[in-house]
Amino acid sequence: MIYGASLAALLAAAGPAFAEDDAPALQDVVVVTGQSNSTETETQMTPDYLPLEGPDITHLLARTPGGARIGNGALSGQVQYRGLFGERLNLRVDGQRFASGGPGLMDPVFHYAPAPLIARVVIDRGVSPVSAGPGLAGGSDAVFKRIDFSDGTEATLGYDLSLSTRSVDSSYAGGGVIGLSTDSWRVNVIGSTEQGEDFDFADGTVGGSEYQRDVYGLSAGYRTGAHTFSFDVRRQNTGKSGNPPFPMDIQFFDTDFARAGYEGDFDRFDVKASLNYIDVAHLMDNYTLRQDPPPNRQRFTYAYATTFGGDLSVSFGHFGGVMEVGLDGEAVEHDVTIYNPNNANFFVTPMPDIEESRIGVFAEWTGFTRGVNAQFGLRVDDYSTEAGTAITGPALPMGPQMLASMFNMADPGANETTVDAVARFWTEEVNGFTWRGTIARKNQVPNYVQRYGWLPLTASGGLADGNIYVGDLNLDPETAWIFEAGFDYFGQSFYARPTLFLRDVEDYIQGVPYDDTIGVADSMVEMVAGMSGDPTPLRFANTDARLYGLDLDFGYDFEGPWRVDGVFSYVRGERTDIDDNLYRVAPPNLTLAATYEQADWSASFEVRGVAEQSDVSLTNSEQETGAYAIANLYGDWTIRDGVHLSFGVENLFDEVYRDHLSGYNRNAESDVALGERVPGAGRSAFVRIGIVG
Ligand SMILES: [Cu+2]
User: Fold this and answer.
1) Residues 489-520 pLDDT 10s
2) How far is the CA of 684 from the centre of ligand 1 (A)?
3) CA 215 – CA 194 distance, rounded (Å)
């Protein structure tokens, strides 16, 4: 039976059910809801168990060793992994890499992975393989449900649906897939709808925390001989959704996804190829879901991003293993324009017509050599980026006008080449132990906000520290050296999977004081920032950082129906060029659950304890947070084959707690004071039914 993420991970490691072609030492799998019509019986026996802490699947990733969630809004959660977050993680939705639309990352990658549509989340343990693309700090893929090819020539019906409701925000979510397939073709529709009100906590309601999201689409496949073709299209309409830690809220995201894929299965080699297109249109403002600012400070912002990408790879047997060589890349365009609804002459393009392109090549060998399993990967990526002309409306003050003309006189183009290398080793299992080790060198190029933000703004890729930032055209890529060592132990009744890690990041990009005379408005940037309310702006700069820590999951299965599972994460993030800590790093935390399990039902009592975080960033004026503990109760019942119910009560004692990674409130129409950390949800019951056939 399954307790949350930890047992899913255990099953992934122990059984071939849903990890058959992936090395368990390298990946965790979180099963979000039931698997569709899978032929592996072990998968069918696994209940689809998932605590429903909110619509965002980042809540689930936060349950894995080293995982945490950056809370920027109900649909704007970012994954933190071993202290790093944002675009440093190589996140994919159904295998697609793409650019988010919002310059504040209101739509981080997993904004596009509604829980009712997700079959499973695959987490790269530690670092991502080079074959999955560039990325500094590990990665994860949210795989959509689909009706797979079936066994016969007669068309069979398949479906995988779920419906849930949650009390604390009066929310509901429903959706899934339904379709037909034979052994040579498959077609399914997908759809989901989710809606929630502002959520409550013991002292009131968190203003502007409502959300709304709809997705619909189609997936089809055709198989003939050695060739398999696939085609996926999907539209997501996110409606009004609040972001209390940001200066604005989501009005909409209208995002289209299209993907065409090919797999060829030949005698001597396999081929994989895909073409991707993603188009994001986004509107946000600072007056619809919060108190209207004075007319001259009202703003709405349109942001657009398109990604056109592709990849091609060939795998073949080589030196007793499998060699995969490939080519991938993408072209991305961003454009952002800010307006004042009360003044047609007020408009400005803080990130004007940005073009980013990347082309990468990689080789990755996975096999058994000299008594150990190993994976060696090497990738080279070539990046180039350009910006258009900054435009300012006549109503803008002198300061921004001058900064725009300075930006337009500079040469915004940049080229970078990065080389990533990964070596991973894991032993065969001996007496229950599988030993693991990783050495990697990974890179991250500056993003467009860090590079091109010429206008002092709070948009910072979701940092939400309240600081005003400007970019720097001369930023260098970040380079990390990553070392990890650990083991997976599975005994008769005990398991544990600890990992020690060190990540040393040279040229780590973060905000630093704009100049040496902090608070003295002796530059145009500081004057403009001062007019916007922050006389001490930060500029993105290359610094140095180090992260290290330990995380593990573990469990003990007692004689009889009881078992205990736990997840512990500890990470420390420091600047190494100055005496400071990294910003927004998860405090040490431990989750323990006791589970009573029977053949077709189980119940868990869970306690989550989070330590205080006093290692805060002075540079980012970060506030400390205190320790807290909350208790949850979960139940799980397989009513009959293919019908499954989960339910629970979260925050059983209605504790008012403030997670260190939830942002500071900026919405005045709220029972949370301005500048105070947004509290976690109060006591909340949920129920969800899943139907698979
Ligand atoms: Cu936005």
Assistant:
1) 988 899 999 999 999 999 999 999 999 999 88
2) 28
3) 9
